[in-house]
Amino acid sequence: MPPTATLSIRQHEPVNGLYRITLRLKQPDQPDIEAEANIDFALTDQEQEDLRWYLEDYLIYPESSEAVQVAQI
Length: 73
Fold this sequence. Notes:
With 73 residues, the protein is of the alpha+beta class. It has two domains: 42 residues; 31 residues, no CATH class. The chain contains two helices and three strands. Strands 1-2-3 form a three-stranded antiparallel beta sheet, with no helix packed on it. Strand 1 and strand 2 form a beta hairpin. The longest helix is centred in the last third of the chain and has 14 residues. It is flat. 0% of the residues are buried.
């Protein structure tokens, strides 16, 4: 099996509503590449409900869902 690249993403505690994220790409025989960004992360009420549905309902009862609904979420 050939060596693979690995992307690590670390999220830090928010400061003033922004989350600092650190990205590190490790590739065989290459120096690591790192980057940082500050992001504003928030879910709408609908996105929260969609995520809840996926994690609680769909994963328990996948046969009761429409493929289009799953693909949209």
